[in-house]
Automatic annotation (TrEMBL):
It comes from the Eukaryota. Residues 505-520 have a biased composition (Basic and acidic residues). It is found in: Membrane. Belongs to the TAPT1 family. Its main location: membrane. InterPro entries: Tatp1 (IPR008010). The keyword Transmembrane applies. One of its GO terms (cellular component) is centrosome. One of its GO terms (biological process) is positive regulation of cilium assembly. The lineage of its organism: Eukaryota, Metazoa, Chordata, Craniata, Vertebrata. It comes from Panthera tigris altaica (Siberian tiger). Residues 442-478, 492-520 are annotated as: Disordered. The chain crosses the membrane at residues 136-153, 216-241, 378-395, 401-426. This is Transmembrane anterior posterior transformation 1.
Length: 537
């Protein structure tokens, strides 16, 4: 018997006599590849003894096991960080949704009052109305027209028509409605933005549109069809709640777990995960409104008996709990498989907060509700039309006391909206400062609005350091004068631009870098329906 160590003299029988083989392994394995021939006499007992006594040291691969431990800690942090983002995003959607019921009617009234009293004060400006007032009037008119159009849709007939279908057919219909809702949301905000811009575009420019009236009819048709689609979704959910064996509700909830299979085993980048987070926020808030509609319809059928509300309560909690559990599991495994840290959700929260803060700037270019619609794909107008239709048909207002209760309820909604806006604005300023994004609030927008990347220009108009964030967010919007660069960054919802690298570079170097940067966009440039990589999540 012998032991042959490469690079050393062979250890003969005399030197290695009586030394167990593992001692030579312990002696040389740290420096050499050791090979030796065992004695011929092998036994099962010796094999079992070696299997029971052999050891290993995890510190020899410390980096690997440290990384695995960090993945576990990341998965443990995901529920907390995700729910913080979800709560913040849901309150943002609530703020935009309450705006339609509270401040929008008041703004429409003020705009109409200015329009009718304008001859008394004279025309001091070239515009009859400010662009924001024109958009408010258009939103109010669309809301009123679609509300009266919804009276021709019979909710009861739709309910019995859907209830007569088989369970499998209803499951397929519900999945088709979810896909149609995403398609409507992606194209609907473009229709509304086109209407707002066509109505407020300066008249000195060359006419390059089909006119305000065709755009207006397209917007009315879109809001009406989208409201009907959401009504069918709510009716299907109502049928699932009222079924005796709850089989349809179980199938609809299992559809959420199918979403895990279609998401966690795909490659995700940071921008794709941001889109998915926005989609989950919008989906969760929409489900809350649909559950509210279902409860209103059921309570009306049972003459507002409070006991029936406790019958619906377990099913409502089950739907909300399943949605929350699916989101947590989905995001936990996506971040695990793609090596994304849990800190990315604080960046997402700061990006959403940036939209709110930027909409309060002097030269704000959009209303906050429209910014939420672009970022998350949540359009409040169709959902508001449906909720108004359901509430007015479910609750009968008769007598002076009833109207007094309605007025008090309206003032309560205004108080809730104002309180929610104040808290959100304060938290948004905090998140923007923590993310060190204050400088982007005062960056000039790119001069190019086409699909080509704009050339970098020197910023000669820098804001003074004395202007702080809290003072700027409470200022009223001012109509920008000509030849003055607005001091606000343009959101990516309107322009899909690559992220600038900072200093000036050569044109040839920029063209070579654009190929590498085209697929990686800044979070502020990613909305719900921006293609990141090769897909929209």
């Amino acid at each position: 018997k012998f032991i042959n160590v490469p690079g050393e003299e062979s250890v003969g029988p005399g030197e290695g006599e009586g030394w167990p083989p593992h001692m030579f392994l312990d002696k040389y394995c740290s420096f050499y590849f050791v090979s030796f021939s065992f004695p011929v006499e092998l036994s099962l007992l010796r094999f079992l003894s070696a299997e029971l006594t052999r050891g290993y040291f995890l510190e020899h691969n410390e980096a690997k096991y440290t990384e695995r431990r960090e993945r576990v800690y990341t998965c443990m942090r995901i529920p907390r960080e995700l729910e913080k983002l979800m709560v913040f995003g849901i309150f943002l959607c609530l703020d935009a949704f309450l705006y339609v019921f509270t401040l929008l009617p008041l703004r429409v009234f003020l705009a109409l009052f200015r329009l009718f009293t304008l001859p008394c004060y004279g025309l001091r400006d070239r515009r009859l109305l400010q662009p924001a007032q024109v958009c408010d009037i258009l939103k109010g008119v669309i809301l009123v027209i679609c509300y009266f159009m919804m009276h021709y849709v019979d909710y009861s007939m739709m309910y019995h028509l859907i209830r007569g279908q088989s369970v499998i057919k209803l499951y397929i219909i519900y999945n088709m409605l979810e896909v149609a809702d995403r398609l409507f949301s992606s194209f609907g905000q473009d229709i509304l933005d086109a209407l707002y811009w066509t109505a407020t575009e300066p008249k000195e420019r060359k006419r390059a549109h089909i006119g305000v009236i065709p755009h207006f009819f397209m917007a009315v048709l879109y809001v009406f069809l989208h409201a009907i689609l959401i009504m069918v979704q709510a009716t299907t959910l109502n049928v699932a709640f009222n079924s005796h064996n709850k089989s349809l509700l179980t199938i609809m909830m299992s559809n959420n777990f199918v979403e895990i299979k279609g998401s966690v085993f795909k490659k995700f980048e940071k921008n794709n995960l941001f889109q998915m987070s926005n989609s989950d926020i919008k989906e969760r808030f929409t489900n809350y409104v649909l559950l509210l509609i279902v409860c209103l319809r059921n309570m009306e059928q049972f003459s507002w008996n409070p006991d029936h509300l406790w019958v619906l309560f377990p099913d409502v909690c089950m739907v909300i709990a399943s949605e929350t559990a699916v989101d947590i599991v989905k995001h936990a495994f996506i971040t695990k498989f793609n090596d994304i840290t849990a800190d990315v959700y604080s960046e997402y929260r700061a990006s959403l907060a940036f939209d709110l803060v930027s909409s309060r700037q002097k030269n704000a270019y959009t209303d906050y509700s429209d910014s939420v619609a672009r970022r998350m794909g949540f359009i409040p107008l169709p959902l508001a039309v449906l909720l108004i239709r359901v509430v007015t048909s479910s609750i009968k207002v008769q007598g002076i006391l009833s109207y007094a209760c309605v007025i008090l309820f309206y003032f309560g909604l205004i108080s809730l909206k104002v309180l929610n806006s104040i808290v959100l604005l304060g938290k948004s300023c905090q998140y923007v400062k923590e993310a060190k994004m204050e400088e982007k609030l005062f960056n000039p927008p790119p001069a190019s609005t086409s699909g080509k990347p704009p050339h970098k220009s020197q910023n000669k108009c820098k804001p003074s350091q004395e202007e702080n964030l809290s003072a700027s967010v409470t200022s009223q919007p001012v109509h920008p004068k000509e030849n003055v660069i607005p001091l606000l960054v343009t959101s990516s919802s309107d322009q899909f631009l690559t992220t600038p690298d900072g200093d000036e570079k050569d044109i040839t170097q920029e063209s070579s870098e654009l190929k590498h940067r085209s697929s990686k966009k800044d979070l502020l440039e990613v909305d719900r329906f921006t293609i990141c990589g090769n897909r929209i999540d």
